[in-house]
Amino acid sequence: MRNFTELYRMDLPHRAICVYRYLADRANKDGTCWPSIPTISKDLKLSESTTRRAIYDLRKAGLVKTEQRYRENGGNSSLCYWLDTL
User: Fold this and answer.
1) What is the CA radius of gyration of the chain?
2) pLDDT tier at 1 (50, 70, 90 boundaries)?
3) Contacts with 86 (C-beta within 8 Å, 6 or more apart), sequence order
4) What band does 84 get if pLDDT is binned at 50, 70 and 90?
5) Mapping DSSP to helix (H, G, I), strand (E, B) and coil, where does residue 50 land?
6) Please, are residues 85 and 31 in contact by the beta-carbon 8 Å criterion?
7) Three-state DSSP class for residue 65
């Protein structure tokens, strides 16, 4: 389990802390995961817009990097998340 003490000391809204912990729980040993916004929202009982704002907060704080993934037909797939370890 990760030590989240530094996360709690940061000036982040609750939504961002909640989403970071969710992503950390689903990340592989390299800190990478790719849950969709609807999945995160449903699991955390947040709206999709709140989830997007949380991800923006995490990117702005330098805790998460994202990259858009694409399907073979060129359509958008879920984001790939890279977590900065605390």
Assistant:
1) 13
2) very low
3) 2, 3, 4, 5, 6, 7, 63
4) confident
5) helix
6) yes
7) strand
Average pLDDT taken over every residue of the chain: 89
Q: For residue 44, what are its two tokens?
A: 């955390």
Taking the C-alpha atoms of residue 20 and residue 29, their distance in angstroms, rounded to an integer, is 15
- The residue type at 74: G
State both tokens at 7.
């996360």
Tell me the C-alpha distance between 76 and 62, whole Å. 24
What is the C-alpha to C-alpha distance for residues 55 and 1, in angstroms, rounded to an integer? Answer: 21
3-state class percentages of the chain: helix first, strand second, coil last, to nearest 5? 45, 20, 35
Tell me if residue 48 falls in helix, strand or coil.
Answer: helix
* HSE-up (13 A, CA, CB side) for residue 46: 21
Q: How far apart are CA 71 and CA 44, in angstroms?
A: 26
